[in-house]
Design brief:
By secondary structure, this protein is of the alpha/beta class. It is 40% helix and 20% strand. This is Response regulator transcription factor.
């Protein structure tokens, strides 16, 4: 899952991004509304965590623009105000969910994951395919009932492949969904991660390489 965090309190923004990355999400961070509009115009995000009171361009205007563009991106709006009227107004702008500050990080993570599931065809919370069971919320993976310990990027790649339900996922798509914008697109990080993931999942291999196209399970 790829997430954009838009928050002008830099310490909070960086803390949220760090926490979400530990949950195997690819996260970009910006600190004002103008930068947010630039990013959503270039990258495809599953979820935007959007502070409402932003400098340069207000969060309301960022939300409106996302809606106008018809993106599948879901918006989780943050605000320091706990007034019901503010929450209603944010939702009427097109936000998909609303979370007042201060918030518990576990709740933020749960809401981001729930919104992420709504950007694609509805799938069950626990994914199962080819003897593999993946639980995004618990960050657990089992193969034939045996738990498999994965690093965050390995987990992210496996989740993308599982959600594709047998269709081929290109290396570019994996890079887009499992890494942030600071990753060099010309590195072999996808190939190395897939190789490590195959090894950890054991025999027989379940990740198939489709020459010239990508990978599938």
């Amino acid at each position: 899952m790829r997430v954009l965090v838009v928050e002008d309190e830099q310490l909070l923004a960086d803390a949220v991004a760090t926490g979400l990355r530990r949950e195997a999400m690819a996260v970009d961070v910006v600190y004002d509304g103008a930068a947010a509009l630039e990013r959503v115009g270039v990258n495809d995000y599953d979820v935007v965590v959007l502070d409402r009171d932003l400098p340069l361009v207000h969060g309301d205007d960022v939300c409106r623009r996302i809606v106008e563009l018809g993106m599948p991106t879901r918006v989780l709006m943050l605000t320091a105000s706990g007034d019901v009227s503010d929450r209603v107004e944010g939702l009427e702008l097109g936000a998909d969910d609303y979370l007042p500050k201060p918030f518990a990080f576990t709740e933020l993570t749960a809401r981001v994951r729930a919104l992420g599931r709504r950007t694609t065809v509805a799938l069950p919370p626990v994914l199962e395919r080819a003897g593999i069971k993946l639980d995004p919320n618990r960050r657990e993976v089992f193969r034939e009932g045996k738990e498999v310990q994965l690093a965050p990027k390995e987990f992210a790649v496996l989740e993308v492949l599982m959600r594709s339900e047998g269709t081929v996922v290109s290396a570019e798509q994996l890079l887009e969904k499992a890494w942030d914008e600071n990753t060099d697109p010309f590195t072999n990080v996808v190939r190395v991660t897939v190789m490590t993931l195959r090894r950890k999942l054991g025999e027989p291999p379940v990740i198939v390489t489709v020459p010239g196209s990508g990978y599938r399970i």
